[in-house]
Amino acid sequence: MGTLSENQEFAEFSGSDISLVVIETNGGFPIPDEIKIKAHMKIIDAGPGEWNSPPDPGNVYDGNVGIEIRGAYSATLPQKPYGFETRDSLGGNFNVPLLGMPEENDWILLANYNDKAFLRNSLAGHLFRQMGHYAPRTRHCELVVNGSYQGIYVLTEKIKRDKNRVDIATLDVYESSGDDVSGGYIFKTDYYSDDNSWISSFPPATRPDRTVRFVYSYPKADEINDPQKEYIQFYVNSFEEVLHGSSFKNSQTGYSAYIDVDSFRDYFILSEVSRNVDAYKKSRFLFKDKESKGGKIHSGPPWDYDWAWKDIWDCHMFTNTDGSGWAYEVNDCDVWPVPPVYMTRLLQDDHFANRIKQRYVELRQSTLSDASIFAYIDSVSHYLDGAQQRHYATWDILGEDVGAPEVGYIPMNFIGEMVKFKAWIQTRLSWLDSNMPGDEFGPVQSVSQATAALRLFPNPASDLVYIESYVLMDRIEIYTISGTRVYMNPGGPEFSTAVDVHEFTPGIYLVHLVTVSGESVVERLVIK
Q1: 138-145 and 20-25: which strand pairing?
Q2: In 3D, which of 52, 69, 62, 78 has the Cα closest to residue 23?
Q3: Do the domain assignments include residue 443?
Q4: What is the per-residue pLDDT for 492?
């Protein structure tokens, strides 16, 4: 059981009533792990209700790709996930739109061996987009590789910097100062090596002997230059230092000066609605744009939700069958990678907790209502009705516990899987309705971008100190505590600047910022 049946043979697969992807590698070679090989790909979609056959011409795409097996645990399962890039005739990147998704060259085919409902990743993305944020777009399809039917896949965008994906500024290798070096960045908590990550200065409170690492995603570890590494490390460290400091609730200089609060709020809600075991420890993305474009850390996009939306044998809160437990408390168990999990500290601010509760109550009347979620589930399951029969004739796993080790019964058919999926969501939402932190009618602090929050990092400083504001700064002056001016910015208005303070006498200084609108902010700087 759980292996390919005779129905996988190409000769017995006549076609699909959903989008069909056909891949032929050069020489029919098996697709390898980690190294992309050349292949030809067709995507066929004749429209709703029409039949798509492997010999049909590729009316969506018909051309070259480089393809490899991707993923970590998922790559060990029989149905393999793939990453591919569309290429031109010379082997270069070729940006194309696929199945209504904006043009790009990097794409992923997610397998569904670990998701018998075919919905866990696509539902997470759908909900996050409905909340007003970017999440990778998805399209369900069936896949044939070298004449062999592979089942239902989810064709999805890869998380990367792009005007239609994570829409942040480009960061070229020559950009090393001023507003240029302040963004954009994408980083994550994930599996890591010493070469592709940096170490946080703040281990989780419940596991002080462990190490948190952040992985470079954009720019990639082999492309990011030293000033850029220094900048993003200083920025994240300064945020964490403020978050764990005594004044972390301050609306001007506390945590809200460093992060996009609404994205952290909504990522928390999505992660807890799905009770995703990986939401904080693995495949957890964050990004930061240039100071001139806002400059704060955003939480998301969401990724890797195939272990979510179900009860699994893992850390104790994920085994609960009554809908209870908090995913953000994952550090109470011995998990790896070790996540920072900022939520424990953020929830100590009543204003932040109230924002969560008020947003959750609002979403339960719309995006997160049972009716809205179930309508999306029903539309996808209806679309896949014929395809799921072919998929399970190939992957004979209904009624088996495969992939994530599930708690409780395993349905024997697809209808049972959908009933179980909906019942889990309904139970979880019912528990959250009664237990979501915060006060529905409590006060919340404004986190408007219009305020002239001043960021200094690192602080204390010994060499360079970055001075930033997300409104344009007209004048920056640094004074000794006795009132002697030791620095004034020589240039014109700017969002971000770096000041060399290595010759300053150790002690306490005052940084005075005046915005172009005349607003004045003063912050203390320690030189060590």
Answers
A1: parallel
A2: 62
A3: no
A4: 75
Q: Judge contact between 497 and 475, C-beta under 8 A.
A: no
**How many structural domains comprise the chain?**
2
* pLDDT 10s digits, 454-467: 889 999 999 999 99
The answer to whether residue 47 sits within a structural domain is: yes
Q: Domain range holding 486?
A: 454-527
Q: Is residue 11 part of a domain?
A: yes
> Which tops the pLDDT comparison, 2 or 309?
309
DSSP 180: G
| Burial label, 222 (beta-carbon count in 10 A; 0-12, 13-18, 19+) | exposed
Residue 82 lies in a domain: yes
Q: Residue 89 corresponds to which tokens in the numbers above?
A: 């005739």
The gap from C-alpha 145 to its chain's centroid, in whole angstroms, comes to 29
Taking only the tens place, the pLDDT of each residue in 367-414 is: 999 999 999 999 999 999 999 999 999 999 999 999 999 999 999 999
Instruction: Tell me, yes or no, if the pTM score tops 0.90.
Output: yes
Domain with residue 473: its CATH number is 2.60.40.3080
Cβ distance 99 to 83 under 8 Å?
Answer: no
Beta-bridge mates of residue 199: 213
What SS3 state is found at 447? coil
48-100 confidence digits (pLDDT tens): 989 999 999 999 999 999 999 999 999 999 999 999 999 999 999 999 999 99
Alpha-carbon span 155 to 515, nearest angstrom: 46
Identify residue 362 by its one-letter amino acid code.
E
> What CA–CA distance (Å, rounded) separates 359 from 447?
15
Three-state DSSP class for residue 476: strand
* Whole-Å CA distances, 161 to 97, 218, 404: 16, 7, 30
Indicate if the alpha-carbon torsion angle 328, 334, 335, 339 is positive or negative: positive
3-state secondary structure of 503: coil
Instruction: Give the integer Cα–Cα distance in Å for 290 and 169.
Output: 7
Structure tokens given for 459: 């602080």
Instruction: Tell the residue number behind the tokens 């990986």, with chain if given.
Output: 278
Lookup: tokens for 215: 């992985």
**Cβ proximity of 165 and 405 under 8 Å:** no
Q: State which H helix or E strand residue 239 sits in.
A: helix 226-243
Residue 506 DSSP SS3? coil
Domain boundary among 98, 126, 157: 157
Which tens digits make up the pLDDT trace of 317-349? 999 999 999 999 999 999 999 999 899 999 999
Query: Would you say 141 and 120 are in contact if contact means Cβ atoms under 8 Å apart?
Result: no
